[in-house]
Every structure is written in C-alpha cells, then in structure tokens.
Design goal:
This protein has about 900 residues and is of the alpha+beta class. About 15% of the residues lie in helices and about 50% in strands. The protein contains 11 helices and 45 strands. The strands form 4 sheets. The protein has a 39-stranded mixed sheet that branches. The chain has a two-stranded parallel sheet with strand order 19-22. The chain has a two-stranded antiparallel sheet with strand order 27-28. The protein is elongated, with a radius of gyration of 52 Å. The relative contact order is 0.04.
C-alpha cells in the first residue's frame, strides 16, 4: 500500500493549474456582479426617472401647478412690463417641452373698459432640449433661449398717445440694465419658427389725432441658424387708417423681411388700398439697411398712388382726384463712392486696394445724408381750396431729393382747357423750418419714443432711443421757373378766381416765361411770394359755350407780383381787341392789396359792349342794371380816356381826360320824364367813383353850333339798408352844376336835350345858369336869352329871363312865350321870382314888355308896369294870367 502510495505520480502541476483556475474566478464574478448591479441601478434610475417624469407629467396638469407657475409668470411679466397682468390658464407638456398659455392680458394706463395695452387669446411654444440640458449640466444660465416653435393667436395691441406726450404703455418696475441691442436680444431667443395669427393692432394718436387698426394680421418668423438671422413674413389683410377728420382708408400689406445683428433687409413690401370710386393705390418696395450704429441703406419704391387717398393719409385737404405713377430709388450717402470702392470685396479677404489704384470720382449729388431719384407721372389730378380749383391735370416730372434740396426737373403740366406749362421747381431746405428741440416737443414723438424704450427694457435690451433732438433746419426757399404755352385766360380764371368770376368775356391765351420765388417762416410763407412774368396774348379762336361774349384779344404784359403787399407792379400792359385798345402801367391790387390799385390808363374804344361780360363779372351795377347797361352812355363814335384808376375795384376812383364823339347820355334812366341827351362831341376833365359820383372840372359839349361848357358834381343817392350804405343812381341823386352857352342855335340845344319835337323854338341862345338839388328840384339862378327866332309860330326879337331865388323845375310840355299878353313858364315847386323882358313882333306891330312877376301853384300872376322901349314908350299891358 505504501509502495503504491509512494509510487503515485506527483500532482503538483495539476494541482497548481487547478488552483490557479480557482483563484481567477472571483474577479470575474465580481465584474459580473458589478455590471449586473450597475444595470440594476440604471434600471432603477430609469424607473425612478420614469416615475418622476410620470409624476411630473401628472403634476403639470394639476390645478396646483397651473396656480403656482401661472403666479410666477404673472409676477415675472408684471416686473418686466410694469403693467397689470392677467393669465387665465397655463399648461406644460413635458414630453414635447411645450407650454401653452391662454387668456394673457397686459394692462397699461388706459382707462377701465378700454381695450388693454396687450393681449393674446392663446400662446403656444416649444423649447429646445439643449436649453434644458444646459441647466441640468450646471453650466449656468443659457445665453440664448432656444425656441423650436412660437405661435400667438389673436394678439391684440392697443397704443394710446395723448397731447401731453404720454402713452398707455406701462413702465417696467425693475428694468434690467443690459448692453445688448434690441436685435441682439431678439436673436438670442433663436426662435426656429414664430407665427402670429388673426392679430389686431390699434393706435390712437390723440395729439394728431390719428387712428390705425390692423385686423386679420398674421406673421410667420423663423430663425436661420446658419446666418444667425430671422426671416419674417407678415400679412395685414385689413389695415384701416384714419387721420384727423379725414375719411378712413382701408388697405392691406404683405411683407417679407430678414433681421440680423447688424443688417435689416426688406425683401418685399406690397401695399394696396381698397379701390374707392375705381381708384387704387398699389406700391411695392425693397430696402437694405446695414451697420445700425452708422446706417448705410438703399431702397426702391414703384407703383401708383390714388391722390384722393393720399390726401386722407397725409391730412392734405383739397386733393380730389387722379393718380400718380412713381418710380423712386434711393441710398444713403454716409459712404462716398471712392471709399466704397477701396473696401475689399468678400472674396478679397482683408486686402485693401493700394492708394495708387484708380477709383471713380465722388458723386457730387450725394455729399451727405441720402439721395432719392426717380420719375413721377400725374393723371387727371384734381385739387381745390379757397384759392385754387384744378381738375384733369396731366403731367410729369423727374425727382431729385436730398435732405436739403427737393428738385423737380422736366416738370410738365397739361390743362384740360388747352395749353401746357414746362419748367423746373427747386426747394431748398424742403423739410421746413424746425428747431433742434422740435422733435422733443412733439407729443406724438415723445409718446412713441417712450413706448419703444419701455418695450426694449421689458425684454432686457437697452433703450434704442437716447435723444429726440434733431439737427436744426432752416426755413424752406423755393424757386420755380416755368414757360407757359397757350394757356387760355378763361382756364386761368376758372382755376384761380372766386367761383362766379370765371369768365371775363375775352378769348385769349398766354404764352411766355414766368419765375416764382418764395421762402421763409411757414406762418408768413404767402408774404414771401415773388412772381416775375413776361407774357404774350393771342386769341384761341375757340368759342366758349354759354359765354355772353367772346372778344378776341391780343397784346402783352410785363409785371411783377409782390406777395408781401399782394400787388402786381405792371411795367407794361398792351391790350388790343376789335373795338378797343388799352395800355396801362402801375400797381394792380390783388385780394387784400385791392385798395392799393393805382394804374395809369390809356383807353380807346368805340364799343362799350365789349366790356359787358367783364363789368358783369366785376359786379358793376347802376340804377338796377348790370354790366355795360349800367353805364348811362350809348357810344356811337369813339371815346378816349387818359387818366388814372385808383382804389378797390368796387369803389374804384377813375380820374382823367375824356374825349368822345357821337354819344348819347341815357338820362331817361333816371326818370321817365327826363329826355336823353345827344352829343356830337365832348371834351372833359372829370373824376368818377361808384360811391363818390361824378365831378366835372371842365367840359366842352358840342351839338351842331351849340357849345356848352359844363362843370359841377353829380352824386348818387345814399341809403342805409340793414346798417349798410348803398348808393343809387336815380332821380334823387344830388346835382350841383353850372352851365354856359354862347350864341348857340336853339334847335341844336333842343336836339341836345332831346326835346326838339316838343318845343318849336328857334333863335340864338345864350345862357349862364347854376343850380343845385335833385334832378326834379333844383335851386339856383342865372340868365337865359333868346334872340331873333320863332316861338310856337310867332317871331320874336328877344326873350330874356333873369332867374334867382328858390326852387324851380321845367316840365317839358309845349310851352313858350305867347305874343301879346300871355306867358306860360311851366310847372313849378315852391315860389320863384324873376325879371322877364320880352320883345316880339305881332299883327299890331312891334311891341315890348318888361315886368316883375311871382308864380306859385303853377300860375303866373303878372303885374303890368310902364316901360319905355325904343319904338313904343309906355304901353300898359294890364293884368293877365296864364295857367301852368
């Protein structure tokens, strides 16, 4: 046994290997157990996380979560905006990292019951997971809030700006100080997609007033990570604008744009108004702005504008009709062309051109600010105010606009009545007079700036508007140079004259150059207008329908208008028509300058009827008649007046020297029993005014052999009607006159007086009379003698009447000195005394009589008196009577 045992082979190696194997097993089992334990831990953690997620998911839907989170959101928004915040509901979807808020309202300072400052019916947003993980990893606050999606339904915005420069925008309670700009703050949000649906924006500017309501507003905004920009599409399907008391304008806008940290690109803007009466405004625009600190921009606008709607949008009264076609391109001038050319292109890196490199010369028209150039065409423009009425005007112009100059070249206008005007308009400092503090004093500007800055602070950005002061602007100054071609006088009167004064009865058109200059403080701008013109007149040959007359006129005028005193200084006026010629110089008053009229006039005419329409237009009236009919003269020959015309047109004083031939004075217009006066010729120095009457300094009136020298005054009858003085040329007008006639034939004198058929008297007349009163009651006296004639079929040697005393008047019946013993001197008023001497031839032979008589109540009472005559001394006629 011992041998067998002693002879057993050794087992060490085997045992060693087996022992080694046994010794290696525990580490493997440990790793396995560790991994299995780790797996269980992981499963446990996942399970816990799942449970927590489930719990969180469940909790986020509980009212407690809504109350707690909703309260935090309300508190945060109130601190950020400064307004009172309401939130009806908020929910959080953990699986989709989505938040939904309903019924958000932010109140400003508007009154209770008014539309709130900002509200939204529903807000829905989704966050990026990396935003959550950054906080979980403990890396601190996210510098950029990543939003996958943001949708706002029925966002409503209401801004009120009052007359004191305040708005209803709330002010943040605890504004955060930040150096970031608004665009940087917005870009840090990195919202992948933003949608605004069915929005409404209302702006009530109570300072202007100005109201805007944007209904059916939708917007889509998306973030482009590669470019670090926002792309946006905005649609306003119903934009309503109302300025002051103008009509409301309805329009729509479609806009696409991109916003970067230092660039803004308006890719397209399409603006269109709802047609009104067939008119439509439709504009398209693009723009690019770079380097916000020192902006460089370029833009273009094309389309057509309805002029009437333009007036509504700009509160320019008087724009009535028509359309404007516009094409405008512009750019800033902050970088001159040669500097821009030295900047490298993007493919050149930072390499700049050498100083010796040739570049284009600078644009002299774009030294600073900006430059806008383009074209404009006008179609059937209508404009009217208290001074001007335009309609159906067509034309065009080329535009050249800088901050200091507004230039219209190739300016043209075509009028509906014929004719056109072409020229150039230049306005320096066209933006108008403004002080550096004018913007800061504007309630609208102050309120808008406050609102923008408050909005920036509420999102943690710095205020973008730091100062409202602007560069001072001097008063505007304008220069217009135009050449008019064949513009009818009637068209000019239709445009500029008071309604009802549109037709002067003349057919003529003007041609020639005109320059206009104005400038100065806005409140005195009309006083600065200066106009210089040299115009030619020529008839058009076109008769105006309904016109009372159509007198062709030719001539020229050289004049200068001074707006300061509203007068036209006429250096030369020549006016020629078929029956008249007029030359004039001096001052012609216009509007308030009307009383300053002082003209030197030389008028030759043979037909006063040519001026009928002119006089009617000027409301010339007399004795119930208008126009030429109000002039109590019928001119059958020629008349020449050289003198002056002074004062306002309705009370103009005309003074000078008049010569006329073959005319008739219509005295019958002052009374049916007064005959007309027929005159072969008249030479007179006289003065006339509608209210002051006629003053004849000297005159010589001829009819055949009768040469009458007449001086005196005739003044119209003044009556008060409703506290206003009126002047009537009737039978009660006042007369103060004296007349002399030497050796005139009675027949010529009676023809002049228009009574030759009623008074059959011949002989030679000498008279020297004076009197005053009315045309039917004259107080005066003088001497009248008739010699060697025939009266009522009886010859006489001499009839002499010496009249002195009270009132007398002649009734032009068939009366005369009857031979022998009767005398009929006519009807009288009051009492008249006279001495009369009669020498006559009768069937009983030559005789004479002399006596004193008194008449009254239309009777002569003759007291006989002895008198010695050359051929009969002392015949006593006795007492006699003759009824008047």
């Amino acid at each position: 046994m011992s041998d067998d045992t002693g002879t057993r082979p050794p087992q060490e190696p085997v045992n060693s290997a087996v022992d080694g194997a046994v010794e290696a097993t525990p580490p493997a089992k440990k790793r396995h157990l560790f991994l299995r334990g780790l797996a269980w831990c992981a499963l446990l953690l996942v399970g816990v996380a799942a449970v927590l997620a489930l719990v969180a998911t469940w909790y986020t839907g509980t009212p407690d979560f809504q109350r707690r989170v909703g309260g935090e959101v309300v508190s945060t928004l109130e601190n950020a905006t400064g307004g009172r915040v309401e939130l009806r509901y908020i929910s959080f979807n953990l699986w989709h990292l989505a938040i939904e808020a309903d019924g958000l309202v932010i109140h400003g300072t508007e009154a209770p019951g008014e539309m709130p400052y900002l509200s939204a019916s529903k807000i829905f947003l989704r966050l990026h997971l990396n935003m959550i993980l950054t906080h979980v990893r403990g890396l601190g606050p996210q510098s950029r809030i990543s939003l996958r999606y943001l949708r706002v339904e029925q966002p409503h915005f209401h801004l009120i700006m009052d007359k004191d420069g305040h708005s209803n925008a709330p002010v943040p309670k605890h504004p955060r100080t930040s150096g970031k700009s608004v665009q940087d703050t917005l870009l840090d949000v990195q919202a992948r997609k933003v949608e605004l649906v069915d929005g409404l924006a209302v702006v009530n500017d109570r300072a202007v007033p100005f109201n805007v309501a944007a209904k059916d507003m939708s917007a889509e905004v998306h973030y482009v990570r590669r470019k670090d920009i926002y792309g946006a599409t905005i649609d306003l399907a119903d934009l309503r604008t109302k300025l002051a008391n103008e009509a409301e304008v309805q329009s729509k806008i479609h806009l696409t744009a991109e916003l970067g940290r230092d660039v803004f690109a308006l890719k397209s803007l399409d603006f269109a108004t709802t047609p009104e009466g067939g008119a439509l405004t439709h504009l398209t625009a693009t723009a690019l702005v770079q380097h916000f600190a020192k902006p460089e921009w370029q833009a273009s606008v094309t389309g057509n504008v309805d002029v009437k709607q333009l007036g509504y949008l700009t509160d320019v009264a008087g724009l009535k009709a028509g359309t404007l076609d516009l094409t405008v391109n512009g750019h800033s001038c902050s970088v001159t062309p040669q500097v821009a050319q030295r900047n490298p292109h993007f493919w050149q890196g930072h390499k700049k051109l050498p100083p010796s490199a040739k570049v284009l010369p600078p644009d002299p028209n774009c030294a600073a600010g900006y430059l806008l150039v383009g074209t404009m065409k006008a179609h059937n423009i209508g404009y009217s105010d208290e001074n001007v009425r335009l309609h159906d005007i067509n034309g065009g112009a080329e535009l050249h606009i800088t901050p200091t100059e507004l230039l219209f070249t190739a300016l043209s206008g075509y009028l509906p009545g014929g004719g056109d005007a072409k020229g150039q308009l230049k306005i320096e400092n066209w933006l108008g007079e403004a002080s550096p503090n004018s913007a800061a004093s504007s309630p609208t500007t102050v309120a808008a700036a406050t609102t923008v800055n408050s909005g920036a602070k509420s999102i943690g950005a710095k205020a973008p508007i730091t100062s409202l002061k602007s560069a001072p602007v001097q008063s505007a100054h304008a220069y217009l140079t135009v050449v008019v071609e064949h513009i009818p006088l009637r068209t000019i009167m239709d445009v500029t004259a008071t309604p009802g004064y549109g037709d002067l009865g003349f057919d003529t058109a003007i041609t020639g150059p005109t320059t206009v200059e104005w400038g100065g403080p806005e409140k005195d701008i009309s006083d600065t207008v200066q106009v210089q013109a040299h115009l030619m007149f020529a008839p058009t040959g076109v008769k105006r329908k309904g016109a009372l007359s159509n007198v062709p006129v030719s001539g020229e005028v050289v004049g200068h208008y001074d707006g300061r005193i509203e007068v036209v200084n006429i250096a030369q006026l020549a006016w020629r028509s078929p029956a008249a010629s007029l030359t004039a110089s001096g001052v012609l008053g216009v509007n308030v300058g009307d009383p300053l009229t002082n003209l030197q006039v030389n008028l030759v005419t043979r037909d006063l009827g040519e001026f009928d329409q002119l006089l009617q237009t000027l409301e010339f009236e007399g004795n119930g008649r208008k126009g030429a009919a109000a002039i109590p003269v019928a001119l059958h020959g020629n008349a020449n007046f050289v003198g002056t015309a002074k004062g306002a047109i309705r009370t103009m004083d005309v003074k000078g020297h008049l010569t006329a031939s073959d005319l008739e004075l219509k005295a019958s217009e002052f009374g049916s029993d007064i005959p007309d006066v027929h005159i072969d010729s008249v030479v007179a120095s006289a003065e006339y005014s509608p209210n002051g009457g006629v003053t004849v300094v000297s005159s010589t009136i001829e009819r055949g052999t009768a040469v009458l020298n007449l001086v005196g005054t005739v003044k119209p009858d003044r009556e008060m009607v409703g506290g206003v003085a009126t002047y009537l040329w009737d039978k009660d007008m006042a007369i103060d006159a004296s007349a002399k006639l030497v050796n005139g034939q009675a027949t010529d004198l009676l023809e002049m007086a228009g009574v030759q058929a009623k008074v059959p008297v011949t002989g030679t007349v000498n008279l020297d009379l004076s009197g005053s009163g009315t045309i039917h009651s004259i107080i005066g006296g003088g001497m009248v003698t008739l010699t060697n004639g025939v009266a009522y079929g009886e010859s006489y040697q001499k009839i002499a009447v010496n009249v002195a005393g009270g009132a007398w008047a002649f009734d032009h019946g068939e009366r005369g000195v009857q031979p022998g013993h009767e005398t009929d001197a006519g009807a009288v008023d009051g009492e008249q005394s006279a001495a009369i001497e009669v020498r006559y031839d009768s069937q009983g032979g030559a005789g004479c009589g002399r006596g004193a008589f008194v008449y009254s109540d239309c009777e002569w009472n003759v007291a006989g008196a002895r008198s010695a005559c050359a051929d009969d001394a002392g015949e006593d006629y006795g007492a006699g009577k003759a009824a008047g």
